[in-house]
Amino acid sequence: MLSTFKLIRRISVYVKKYRSKLVLAFLFSMIGALMNMVVPDIIRRITDTIAAGLNSSIDASAVIRYSFIALFMMAGGFVCIFLQNALLPLVSQLMSRDIRNDMNRKIDRIPLSYFDVRPNGDTLSRVTTDVDMFANAVTNNISGIISSIVTIIGISLVMFSINVILTFTLMALSIVFFMFNTFLMKKSQPYFHSQQHLLGAVNAKAEEAISGHLIIKSFGGEQETRQSFSESNNKLAQDAWHSQFISGMMMPIMNVGGQFSNVAVVLAGAFLMLHHHSGITIGMIVAFVSYSRIFASMLTNLSQCISSLQPAIAATNRILELMDVEEMTEANTPKTLDKVKGHITFSDVKFGYVKDKIIIHDFSADVKAGSKIAIVGPTGAGKSTVINLLMRFYELNGGKILIDGVSIADMARNNLHEFIGLVPQDIWTFEGSIRDNIVYSTEGISDNKLNDVLEASGLVYFVSAMPEGVDTVINEQSNLSTGQRQLITIARAMVKDPPVLILDEATSSVDTRTEKLIQAALDKLMAGRTSFIIAHRLSTIQNADLILVMKDGDIVETGKHDELLALNGVYADIYRSQFDTK
Amino acid sequence: MKTIIRNIRGKEWFLVAGALLFTAAQVKLELLFPEYLKDITALIQSATIESGKLLTLCWQMFAFVAGALICALLTVLCVAISSSHITARIRQSVFNKIMDFSLEEVAKFTTPSLITRCTFDVMQVQMFISTAPAMLIRSILTGVMATIGIWGKHIIWTSITGGTVALMLALLSLLILFLTPATMRVNKLTDRLNKISLEHLTGLRVIHAYNAQDYQQEKFDSVNNSLADTNIYINNRMALMYPIITLFTSLTTLLIYFSGVFILRSSEASHKLHTFSNMIASATYASQAIMAFLMLVFLMMMLPRMIASLRRISEVLNENIKIQDGGGVIVSGNDTGKVEFRNVSFRYPGAVNDALSGITFTVNPGQTAAIIGSTGSGKTSILNLIPRLYDVSGGEVFVDGFNVRDFKLNDLRERLGYVPQKAILFSMSIADNIGYGDNSRFKPTLENIKEAAEVGQASEFIEQQEAGYDTEVQQGGKNFSGGQKQRLTISRAISRNPEIYIFDDSFSALDFKTDKILRAKLRETAGNATIIIVAQRISTIRNADKIIVLDKGRIAGTGTHEELMSSCQIYREMAESQSISQ
Fold first, then answer.
1. B51 touches chain A (CB under 8 A)
2. Are residues B269 and B409 in the same domain?
3. Regarding predicted confidence, which is higher, A581 or B556?
4. pLDDT grade, residue A466 (50/70/90)?
5. Which residue of A has its CA nearest to B572?
């Protein structure tokens, strides 16, 4: 957590661009508050003028003059407050837009290790909810705090100028009520926490039960689940009314406090009027009644704004936390390659996801351009690690990976990625046309080329059956099967046409018949390219030039199919369990 | 609305009535204030001030204020107690109803939506019922009483107040109506922004690999910009709201005083004092009336969200559950464990085509049957029909020789050990997870649970845990790997000691070796129980007594591995692609 001061300094970077608008907003806010404040005082003068003329004749011209001043003030207040209310949200929206943009760019520069150990929802809520909270705080709370303070100070001055005794009476009472409420709020904190806690428990139970509906049904767990839910729910109901009661009390107490002050002011004024030297007029009392209302409401407003600032500060902290995550290192003066053949060398590679827990020890291998490398191993053996290293998603703890003789650590990541086509294990398509999903960020793809790819990837029949062909928009609802989506990711790599290819379980979700159809396409795709293949089914990789066998994170065996079988180790074990005839 | 009323019980009616009564009393007391103010002004302005009378007035006023406070607090108390209980009851009935849902209803609403309805929507309703009714009564009573109070005073003052209130309400309503489409657009854009951010996070590897950072940024930018623009558009107009309120409140007071001058001028001398105090009271009433109507406006702004939430809740509560208990059957020995499909067809609700048609097969007690076919061929649909998670569209399904429709649902499901494709675990101990479910025939002891884990190949990693079988499973089973979760769910089915095991592709996350050992042990333990397996790998099912090959919802072949290799082309192709030969 950053201190509030530091927080403001950090955020001020975003304020800079809109400084002038912000200053204007504050200016208008002050002028508007002052103008609105004067109105009751003018009305006081009107009342007094009328009261003075009650027994003789009323000075109508004075009343008219005062009315015009009041009208002017009201109109001025209207304009100023409107401008303030328009400007502040404008600034906060523009700022949050900038912050979001920066966060989105930041995500691309944060090492993948950050996201691999965190739920996406965490990052997502920083980009969306937290920024919203920040914007709301700027729009509502900050402006609320400023206008309350301006009004409170201004009103105090005006009131003092009218009558000191009445002002003290009013202030003392307001402050007593205000403190009482603050005390209540403090007292109520534990109730709120316990309510939040119980509510969280109930919601978590609901979520779990609804997600596990299928199991609850098939195992007859309805009764049990219902009971456990009802226990938490009743506990919540028993507890919730405490915090509701306390939070519900605040408003009436502040309201009554306002009325109480009103009565007190009226009475104090009335008694003062009995002493003819006090100089109190009926108009003053009327004005004080208005002021006491404004004063009380501004105090409430101020305390509400300050207390609801807390979550916003926490949200801003979460935003800055993401912004402060250490970025991926790039070489200072990167070597740029225009073209590569795909000759990859692993030289004494050491790596561990956790620094002091090295899992790959001194791995070396020379992969000739155009050869086919397979990575096999049981589930959880860390087969994707090699991919993570080759793509430089993770940094090595020792050794080097070279592409055409250049260490990938000396290249810019973008440059490295130009040469590699990745079909990842997690199928990723997005809401957009099939064309956008396949062509993606590759530039200069003609329709002819796209058609060739559709043909080769076996997508052509499916695409032609879609209502708008290749321009059909696909999304979650469009009922694409996992297999079809996987084909799209394969087609995406085909379009990119890179010298190095990585297929991470690229056909795991395609059924065996379709797999057979596209295997030919994949073979064609792999021809002449350095390809890394991760596969469950050994049948697809028996003819690989090099097989890396992984277990518990490390590469335990390397060699060709026959050599590995002869070793009679891990590979032979897996092979036998898969091709076992009995 | 009916949903809320239906959930108010016994003593809560008293609380609700109490809340309304106390609110009314409070409003009545608060409105006495202007009358007292009137009396006091009259007293002060009169030639001789009787301080004794003033003191009496003073105590009376304080008494009324205190009375108002007590009423307000009692209202809050009644509301807090009743609303938290009513909410708990609504939440429980929503939850219970969801628990009664069959898969069909869950699919119709979707799981995330059901979770939102049971959590967020219920909270919305609570927020509404704990604030709205009291506010509504308060504003209506205040409005009515203030109007009555002002009515007798003077026709001009009455019409001034009426006119300004009407004009202000019209302006505010117009503003809100005018902005509704934009507000809806903001919701849509926020969803879209969420979606794009999530897409960015899930696709990070692909984005890096394809150097598509700018491509994604562009997408994000366009939504982010339109979100900011729309918000600014709304804010610019909403900025009018507060100044309008301030302006009209002040304006009303000013107009009353201004017109007062002329009314006073024309009134008789003896009536002047009375008219003057009436004027001051009218101004106070007017501002109370304005406040009352403002509260109504805010209520109206809350209403649409609340109605939406309530509607979503009642949709759940009013949903007809399609699958209900049958009359019940008494199973006699011979057919225990037999599963039979007779010319079954099935279509998902709302789908255009049958997912299954003409499905006929029999699995005899003690047999192992396998269902194999490409993705989307209807394998899971067949399994869903056995526990009656869905009902057939045509034909009949028999378990233990009886139509599944004749069973009591719990009785039917007690006989089955179902392992779904997705491993679902609950946040309770490992032992409780494995022994999960209501089983009137049999409650597994810890010994049984350990045996089940042994067969399910889970005992090794469970015992490695510090707390062993007491280890808490985190929500969603986050503290276990995919393969471990799958083994736990398999153990859960085993501990149930069912007549029929149903495995829906439950071995996919296991490596070949574990898969093989598990199946061998399972067959041994299962004894005379029937096993039905859906699988992708032929190696998993090749030893089955009966293999059913599905193709596009129809049976393409039935028989043993050897029979199918020679008779069924689809099966042969699958086997060949997986390098299984005879």
1. yes
2. no
3. B556
4. confident
5. A513
The single-letter DSSP state of residue B473 is: P
Q: Is the pLDDT of residue B424 over 90?
A: no
Chain A residues with CB-CB distance to B119 below 8 A: 202-203, 206-207
Q: Which of A389-420 are b and which e, b meaning 16 or more Cβ less than 10 Å from the residue's Cβ? A: bbbbbbebbebbbbbeebbbbbbbbebbbbbb
Of the residues B497, B515, B543, which one is the last residue of a structural domain? B497
- Domain extent, residue A492, equals 344-579
pLDDT tens figures, A84-109: 888 888 999 999 999 999 999 999 89
Q: Does residue A243 lie in a domain region?
A: no
CATH number at A87 reads: 1.20.1560.10
Could you give phi then psi for residue B164, rounded to 5 degrees?
-65, -40
The answer to whether residue A65 is domain-embedded is yes
Read off the tokens for B296. Answer: 């109504």
Q: Are B214 and B333 part of one and the same domain?
A: no
What letter does residue A194 receive in the DSSP assignment?
A: H
The verdict on A270 touching B (C-beta cutoff 8 Å) is yes
Question: Is residue B449 less than 8 Å (CB to CB) from chain A?
Answer: no
Domain assignment present for B558: yes
Q: pLDDT of A222-252, one tens digit each?
A: 888 888 899 999 988 888 888 788 877 877 7
Share of chain B above pLDDT 70, in %: 95
Best A64, A134, A192, A210 member to test B by mutation, with max B CBs in 10 Å, is A210
Amino acid residing at B319: E
Q: How far apart are CA B39 and CA A126, in angstroms?
A: 59
Across A15-29, A186-200, B107-121, B152-166, the highest mean pLDDT is recorded for A15-29
Same-domain check for residues B389 and B241? no
In a domain, residue B105? The reply is: yes
pLDDT tens digits for range A207-222: 888 888 888 888 888 8
Phi and psi at B356, nearest 5°, equal -135, 145
CA–CA distance, B499 with B512 (Å, rounded to integer): 26
User: How many domains in chain A?
Assistant: 2
What was the pLDDT predicted at B226? 94
Nearest in space to B356 (alpha carbons), one of B382, B391, B322: B382
Q: What is the CATH number of the domain that holds A505?
A: 3.40.50.300
The answer to whether position B519 is within a domain reads no
User: What H or E segment, with its residue span, contains residue B230?
Assistant: helix B213-238
Full residue range of the structural domain in which residue B465 is found: 422-497
| A127 and chain B in contact, CB less than 8 A | yes
> A200 or A255, which is more confident?
A200
Same domain, B260 and B371: no
A266 contacts chain B (CB < 8 A): yes
Chain A residues within 8 A of B117 when measuring between CB atoms: none
Residue B510 lies in a domain: no
Residue B454 belongs to a domain with what CATH number?
Answer: 3.40.50.300
pLDDT at B282: 82
Q: How far is CA B408 from CA B46, B99, B329, in A?
A: 87, 16, 8
Considering only alpha carbons, which residue of chain B is nearest residue A212? B424
Same domain for B249 and B347?
Answer: no
Nearest neighbour of A124 by CB, restricted to B54, B194, B225 = B194
pLDDT at A581 over 50: no
Please report the ipTM that was assigned to this predicted complex. 0.80
Number of domains in chain B: 3
A56 touches chain B (CB under 8 A): no
Which is more confidently placed, A299 or B196?
A: B196
- Which among A209, A264, A202 has a CA at the least distance from the CA of A238? A202
The answer to whether A228 contacts chain B (CB < 8 Å) is no
The pLDDT value given to residue B2: 67
Which residue of chain A has the CA closest to B481? A380
Nearest to B228 among A94, A220, A418 (CB): A94
A452 within a domain of the structure (yes/no): yes
- Partnered with residue A400 across adjacent β-strands are A347
The dihedrals phi and psi of B342, each to the nearest 5 degrees, come to -120, 105
